[in-house]
Amino acid sequence: MYLYNSVSHKKELFVPNNPDLVKMYTCGPTVYHYAHIGNLRSYIMEDVLEKALRYVGYNVKRVMNITDVGHLASDADTGEDKMVKGAKRENKTVMDIARFYTEAFKADCEKLNIKWPDVVEPATNCIDEYIHMVQTLLEKGNAYFAGGNVYFDTSTLEKYYVFNDHNEEDLDVGVREGVEEDTNKRNKNDFVLWFTKSKFEDQALKWDSPWGVGYPGWHIECSCISMKHLGEDLDIHAGGIDNAFPHHTNEIAQSESYLGHKWCNYWFHVHHLNTEGGKMSKSKGEFLTVSLLESKGYDPMVYRLFCLQSHYRRNLVFSWENLDNAKTAYDKLIAKIATFKNEGEVDAEALAKLQEKFLNALNGDLNTSLAITAVYDVLKAKVGDATKLAALADFDKVLSLNLIEAAEALAKKQAEEEAANADPEIDALVAARTEAKKAKNWAEADRIRDELKERGIEIIDTPQGAKWRKV
Ligand code: AMP
Ligand code: ZN
Predict the structure, then answer these.
(1) Would you tell me which CATH number, out of the four given (3.40.50.620, 2.70.98.10, 3.60.15.10, 1.10.3720.10), belongs to the domain 2-270?
(2) pLDDT one-digit tens code per residue, 61-96
(3) Which residue's CA is the closest to the ligand 1 atom numbered 16?
(4) Which of these, 4, 284, 361, 444, could form a disulfide with 370 (CB 3.0-4.6 Å)?
(5) Which atom of ligand 1 has the smallest separation from the CA of 272?
(6) What is the residue-averaged pLDDT of the chain?
(7) pLDDT at 84
(8) Ligand 1, atom 11: nearest CA belongs to which residue?
(9) For ligand 1, which residues put their CB under 6 angstroms from it?
(10) Which of 31, 41, 42, 225 to mutate to test the pocket of ligand 1 (most atoms within 8 A of CB)?
(11) Which ligand is nearest to the CA of 250?
């Protein structure tokens, strides 16, 4: 499989450290509010990546954190802790907020057929691991204590900006408008590993540490949670593109300084879902959630298809019109599959041919839009229904669009509707008319037709024989 690696800016052949187990880490949500459908685009594409790896034959262990402490309003360690903000907004405790929105996120994942990772660890579970890493970084001279906090010293690195050759002046993450500059920092992009001199009196969660009572910075959690469950070598680290800097850049800085060797080989970044007005956010305009889409009559699978129709490295623009197009496509797709009868033998050779295009699409940097065209190829293929259904069930291991389940449910509903409308007396009259016509007894045939018409029944003559419907 070829995957684009954000570090090398190239598509690279994916080769895991251990061919028997791919180790994958994904940054989880900050659980201070519902996830918006932009966040969920990232999780859908990461889910497709995991399933594609499994589809091509790898075993995968995927780990994800839940950020329930330390993620401040600005990614540059300034502003209020997002969790505290959420708790204040709802007049609840931070832990209540964390529990509630973790469950809400889990429910969204279920609705969107996003597999829950093998390990999901809340950040507040791993305080000892953070303290150990911070202590080691201090001992190694990669960190310093200033003004009550522990900072990572970015000047100790040979190369800090691993993803892009950023212009230091443009970045200035610590000196945004309206945000006080942290004068404890030796270098502009040094970041906090551990806060003890909290600027926020109402910080809810604090722990004892060698540097005083405090709480961890945001970045340290991903390094430690990944190492706790996946060891010192990571194959793939995934997240939304906004996480590349500073979050992932800082994760690499501290992890590799701590380990003394390379940490992660492939960096997979999902580009943003934007609204027509620009960046999607939780505070601006309509807060787009899966529940909101459902309340407007969209099956979550429609949103999943909408995401799969475009490549993960392209920005995707959300509009209701675009979503309507995905809905039309999904409904048509399911209606077509519902007409297939699971009868006859699967043609193994034909199936392999259909699978080839699908596999090539996945292997070419997870080209999901091409994978969807492989689905349409199946619908058009000159093969029996059993082979088509086998191919679709196989592709859906990765796409997870409920292709078979939704089609079966639709076929069942249609059969039930037909059964509910069944009327043996009318069937008998229609049959009698057919017999009369055969016997060239036109008067009798017309009489029956008129009698049915009076009862509100219209006869439709089709190549398969006469059918009827209520008018
Ligand atoms: P957060 O809950 O803010 O920590 O974000 C959760 C995930 O969503 C991260 O991987 C972000 O990079 C990603 N993300 C945030 N905004 C968007 C967006 N508009 N489109 C796609 N992914 C996003
Ligand atoms: Zn992370």
Answers:
(1) 3.40.50.620
(2) 999 999 988 777 766 666 778 888 888 899 998 899
(3) 39
(4) 361
(5) 20
(6) 92
(7) 83
(8) 240
(9) 27, 29-30, 38-39, 41-42, 67, 239-240, 242-243, 270, 272-273, 280
(10) 42
(11) 2
Category of 178 on φ-ψ map: left (φ > 0), alpha (ψ -120 to 50) or beta = left
Give 290's contacts (C-beta < 8 A, 6+ positions apart): 37, 40, 108, 111, 112, 300, 303
The model's pLDDT over 190-231, given as tens digits with 9 standing for 90+, comes to 999 998 875 556 677 889 999 998 889 889 999 999 999 999
pLDDT band for 401, please (50, 70, 90 cuts): very high
Span from the CA of 236 to the centroid of ligand 2 (angstroms)? 12
- Supply the pTM of this predicted model: 0.90
Give the Å distance between the CA of 391 and the centre of ligand 1.
Answer: 33
Which atom of ligand 1 approaches the CA of 27 most closely?
A: 10
Element containing residue 87 per DSSP (H, E): helix 82-90
Q: How confident is the model at residue 417 (pLDDT cuts 50, 70, 90)?
A: confident
- Answer yes or no: same fold for 2-270 and 278-413: no
pLDDT of residue 206: 87
Going from N- to C-terminal start, the domains of the chain cover 2-270, 278-413, 422-470
The Cα–Cα gap between 109 and 103 comes to 10
C-alpha 289/C-alpha 286 separation (Å) is 9
Q: Is 215 helix (H, G, I), strand (E, B) or coil?
A: strand
The CATH classification of domain 278-413, taken from the options 1.10.1200, 3.30.1450, 1.10.357, 1.20.120 = 1.20.120
Quote the ligand 2 centre to 263 CA distance (angstroms).
Answer: 14
| β-sheet with 60-66: strand ranges across | 119-122, 60-66, 22-26, 234-240, 264-270
Q: What is the pLDDT of residue 309?
A: 98
